[in-house]
Design a protein that fits this description.
Elements: E1 4-6, H1 13-51, H2 65-68, E2 76-79, E3 82-87, H3 91-94, H4 97-103, H5 114-119, H6 121-144
Antiparallel strand pairs: 1-3, 2-3
């Protein structure tokens, strides 16, 4: 299972989804949430893959298992009216290796940019923008027919 989950993070998302709910009902609102979350993951995954190119020792000790464990599943987990998508690594495939690469160990420095690919301020800022655009596209489609 991927460790981190992303929800909607852009400013004013509650009001925007409320308007979308009034325009097209619960189905339209869920479609908007799903569009925003999937767009977020589509942004984060290439950032993770890019950071994984900078493995310690040039990847000498890597067999590619961790890179292959990047969670690519686009399933949205719904709990009531709250939707979340898993991002990061699938621990059942990579074990703790992804954690060691992200945070380092006493004998190894963390992989440069790996933690920031998920948790960094630049990533969070970009995700807010991406989510707002994706939800706005759904609103435009609902209003335009």
């Amino acid at each position: 299972m991927a460790r981190n989950k992303i929800g909607l993070q852009f400013d004013g998302w509650e009001e925007t989804l409320s308007k979308l709910d009034k325009l097209g009902g619960t189905t339209a609102m869920k479609r908007g949430v799903e569009a925003g979350l999937k767009a977020s993951k589509e942004y984060v995954n290439p950032q993770l893959e890019k950071a994984m190119a900078k493995l310690p020792a040039g990847g000498k000790y890597s067999r590619g298992i961790t890179k292959k464990s990047i969670d690519k599943d686009m399933t949205i987990d719904w709990q009531g009216m709250t939707g979340e998508i898993k991002v990061g690594f699938d621990f059942s495939k990579s074990g703790l290796t992804s954690i060691f690469l992200m945070y380092g160990t006493p004998r190894m420095s963390p992989v440069s940019g790996l933690k920031n690919a998920i948790y960094g301020a630049k990533t969070k800022k970009e995700i807010k923008k991406i989510q707002a655009e994706a939800v706005q596209k759904v609103i435009d489609r609902v209003m335009g027919g």
